[in-house]
Hints:
Layout: H1 2-5, H2 9-16, H3 24-36, H4 40-52, H5 56-68, H6 72-82, H7 88-104, H8 108-124, H9 128-145, H10 148-159, H11 169-184, H12 188-200, H13 207-223, H14 227-239, H15 250-265, H16 269-278, H17 283-295, H18 299-315, H19 319-333, H20 338-350, H21 355-369, H22 376-388, E1 397-401, E2 407-410, E3 413-415, H23 419-428, E4 431-432, H24 433-440, H25 446-464, E5 469-472, E6 479-482, E7 487-490, H26 491-500, H27 504-509, H28 522-549, H29 552-565, H30 572-579
Parallel strand pairs: 1-7
Antiparallel strand pairs: 1-2, 2-3, 4-6, 5-6
Helix pairs in contact: 2-3, 3-4, 3-5, 4-5, 5-6, 5-7, 6-7, 7-8, 7-9, 8-9, 9-10, 9-11, 10-11, 11-12, 11-13, 13-14, 14-15, 15-16, 15-17, 16-17, 17-18, 17-19, 18-19, 19-20, 19-21, 20-21, 20-22, 21-22, 24-25, 26-28, 28-29, 29-30
Amino acid sequence: MGALEGGQFGLVLTELRGRMDLSPAELAVLGTAELALGAYPEAELHLLRPHLAGEMRATVGYGTVLLEVGRWTQARDHLERHVAALSPEWAAEAQHTLAALDLEEGWWARAAERAEAAARDLLALGLERRAAGPLVTMAWACARHGQLARAEGALQIALSVLPEYPDPAERAMALATLGWAQAVAGRAAEAQGHLERASQLLSTEQVHAQRFVWAARADVAAWTGDHAAEQALVDAVAATLGPLTPPDSRWGRWVGLRRVALSRRAGQWSAALRGLALLPPGAETLWERGALLCDLAEGPAATEALQAALAAFRARGQLLGEARTLAVLCRAAGPPDAPDLARQALDAALRSPLLLPVRAVLDEVAAALAGQPLSAALGAYLEAARAHVQPPAPPPTVQVQTLGSAQVWLSGQPVRAPAALLACLGLCGPLDRAALQLHLYPDRAPAAASSAVKQDIYRCRQALGPHSIVSEGAHHTKRYRLGPAYHWLLDVAEVQRGAASLDPVRAFGGRRGPFLPGVDSDWSQGVQAQLDAATEAMVPALLAIYRREGLTANMGHLVAQFAQVYPDHPRLAEFRVLASTPLETSAG
């Protein structure tokens, strides 16, 4: 069980495969590991028997196998028929699998609600770590549906409990989802960082996570016109599929659709037609067929396929799918129907917050209308759409490092600015000059301290811009704070938030040493004391969660991280004892 929870699926197979005396619980563990590795025929075989014996892990796992191999009707029937007989935690896991099925079928709003309910049920049972999986599924559904703020909120909760060790698969998927949501909103720099980190967390055993991350990156590559990168990512996903993988399986379907789209863009019509012939029916297949027939100047046939796709997208509330389909219909129909279809496409595009893919809709409509006279209304729609797809300029980002050493970066470039002043204003501001003198220069004479603070403010404004530090109030009562036009990243604040939210990745990730080693004041000592107390309180709270959820490896790793930062801490021996206490394994 420890190897399974730690993501060591190959080790599970080594220990259990070939044995003839496996209990139903051991067969369920073996099947779950095979499912994670993408070995679906073996997983189905090894999960069916323990499912029939009443093993709840196997019941949910068998439904997941049916989902993965494309037998969606059977998967839904199986899970809905057995969910009432499951324990509360496994009933929530079954609802999570049903949410994933809704997501694959394009019912994004329903998927989000079902996944959120599953996460809420797991949280009510005290299973915070397991609740993160449904939260990631909920966020992915919300992002696809255009509810980007709701998606980011769910992901922040999930990332606060998903570890990087020993199994970072779900964390990688959460980061990829966050990167995807930021990319479609036009926040390219933030998206790139999260997508790259998601890729760095992957290992060869995390097959489903690999496919998910590569698929998210393929979407972004396609929308930005990097079709060589898209092709490489599609090929990477395809390489993880076995030779007997059916084309209507979850990932076989995805690879097939992407290869048809790539062939169509490259003008390889025969390859696209061969690929279409292998795809199972669905709205996306209809859209690809209509777009290909449109490229081949088969107007009536293209219109028929696209109208069917449009009806499916509208039934599922997929606004982007509606806009994409109307844009191609505009090209397929030609005058005199093109202007009205173009207006409908642009109207749907204006209601979608997914700016990056909406640009393709705008380009399609503009190409279809090229050379035609535009009415005032249609011209206004085009101008509104062009303005809509331009994301607002991101504020300049200032990173302030205070732990171990003091450094400041502006938009990724090091600058000579006093980190202590920025940290003081970031943690305590707004402050008047007297408070700044006391916090930063308590040992200097008042005149010298006042001069030093003035110089620090001047140096900040010189290095970061005149609005980096703003003041308010009359001259003799002036108070200073960090400028709201900047995005401030303060490492000590991030560590404090990580400790408060029981997120060891954030709590330990930025710990490079003591807080502002060059500043010795009651304020700096107080910040260090608060940091130490929050980190100390986090450890037993997290150990209790890990014990409840049976995460042995996480317990040992957490104490090792604490020991690295506090090698002489008086409670270190106590934490080591807590980490070595036998676990209470969960049922099923």
